[in-house]
Amino acid sequence: MRALDVIIAKRDGKRLTGEQIDWFITTYAAGAGIDDEQAAALAMAIYLNGMEPDELARWTTAMIESGERLDLSGLDRPTVDKHSTGGVGDKLSLVVAPLVAACGAAVPMLSGRGLGHTGGTLDKMEAIPGWRAEMTIDEMRDQLTRVGAVIAGASADLAPADRKLYALRDVTGTIESVPLIASSIMSKKLAEGTSALTLDVKVGSGAFMADVESARELATAMVSLGNSHGVATHALITRMDDVLGRAVGNALEVREALDVLDGGGPADVVEVSLALADEMLELVGLDADPGAVLASGAARSVFEEMVTGQGGDLSAGLPEATHRSVVDAPSAGFITRLDARGVGVAAWMLGAGRARKEDDVSPTAGVVCLARPGDEVESGQPVLELHTDDPATFEQASRSLEGAIGIAPEPGPPSPMVIDRISA
Ligand code: URA
Fold first, then answer.
1. Does residue 350's CB lie within 6 angstroms of at least one atom of ligand 1?
2. H-run or E-run covering 226
3. What pLDDT is recorded for position 231?
4. Angle 30-31-32 (CA atoms, 0-180°, nearest 5)?
5. For 302, which of 59, 94, 98, 316 could close a Cys bridge (C-beta 3.0–4.6 Å)?
6. What pLDDT, on the 0 to 100 scale, is given for residue 115?
7. 296: which residues sit within 8 A by CB, 6+ positions away?
8. Count of CB atoms within 10 A of residue 72's CB?
């Protein structure tokens, strides 16, 4: 088989055969004769011409089979995971994993690091002194049995074809493609060994998917991939136009997640956490009330055990930035918008995110929303508080916030956080 023929077939809008897909993915992942430029050309042809559902299923299977598959069978609780397509201020995993574990399930959450303006769960957890992301499969099984939840880094052996292809897509303008995103996310999640999965597909200015129709298309593709691979899968489509909660940035988001686990925290974070937990429990047939479990403090105890199980020490306190600066309301009125992308980019500029995979992130940098959509403010009242250890970043961060605060004479209508649910 020749890579050129596969590229030309997709370039000309043809459906790839199963043999072509298996050969291309296996050979590329093994570094055995397909160059990066050929894989990039095929990714661009898929970006432009799409894939049929059966092609996408085969492509995803080939990506899973490029690496190892974890075996989490034999645990005494049902396994269920949650995955978010990425947002700004999205600390939901830190709440949902211990909450669903406290309700009786085992949550094996293999996560990634952030790239660009959306944060990564591992970066947030690493703001906790001593916490480590690396775990062996035996350590994971042990913690799932004892505590019920693990947040850990995905090993390089899980869907290695995706690791190579994702890095290539990142530099060739081929990230924003429904079949490529769906296969990338689902190959990693299906290789992780969970028996059920809830997807949080974010839509809005701070998300990959800017409009509800494309979010539905992505959610439907992922749900169908999950179910056809024997993993019970549902998706919620949730709003990501405004920052989720008040805090954006690694340690700042851990603090907010702890507030929620303590029974407080912003209403939108609580609402989406409970909606996701409900879906996860339904998928594995557990009849628990996540609202009552959250209020009981049981999820907070599970989170503490998850942290100490991985070397972390919450009693050491979370690190704080050395410098702060505020952004004021440009006029008086009601806040109607705190643009998620603008605030996400500002947090990134302040040091909370990375531009390249190998960059370090600051645990302390970020943005705190002192006022939220719906709040009434005076002209000049502080609305955003910027945190950093490097004050030279304030200027660029403030520039990315120009126009990010929407103010009107009347409050906007309340918008539901959960827009749709896709279950088949
Ligand atoms: N996250 C992934 O893992 N892959 C994508 O393609 C996009 C987001």
1. no
2. helix 212-228
3. 97
4. 85
5. 98
6. 66
7. none
8. 18
Q: How far is the CA of 104 from the centre of ligand 1 (A)?
A: 29
83 is catalytic: yes
Domains of the chain: 3-50 (1.20.970.10), 81-315 (3.40.1030.10), 323-408 (3.90.1170.30)
Active site residue 169: yes
Q: Is 359's pLDDT higher than 90?
A: no
Give the whole-angstrom CA distance, residue 76 versus residue 147: 12
Atom of ligand 1 nearest to the CA of 175: 6
Is residue 180 within 8 Å of residue 43, measured between CB atoms? yes
For residue 167, the model assigns a pLDDT of 87
What local confidence, expressed as pLDDT, does residue 113 receive? Answer: 79
* Cα 204 to Cα 85: distance, rounded to the nearest angstrom: 12
Sign of CA dihedral 358, 85, 367, 250: negative
- Asked if the model's pLDDT at residue 314 lies above 80, the reply is yes
Q: What is the CA(36)–ligand 1 centre distance, in A?
A: 18
Is residue 188 annotated as part of the catalytic site, yes or no?
yes
- DSSP letter, residue 424: -
Mean of the pLDDT values across residues 368-380? 97
Q: Binning pLDDT at 50, 70 and 90, where does residue 189 land?
A: very high
- Radius of gyration from C-alpha coordinates of the chain: 21
Ligand 1 pocket test, candidate residues 121, 184, 190, 201, most atoms within 8 A of CB: 184
The torsion region of residue 354 among left (phi > 0), alpha (psi -120 to 50) and beta comes to beta
> Ligand 1, atom 5: nearest CA belongs to which residue?
181
8-state DSSP, 393: G
Whether 181 is in the pocket of ligand 1, judged by its Cβ within 6 Å, is yes
Give the chain's mean pLDDT: 95
The residue whose two tokens read 């093994």 is 30
Q: 308: which strand partners?
A: none
Marked catalytic residue, from 188, 229, 300, 341: 188
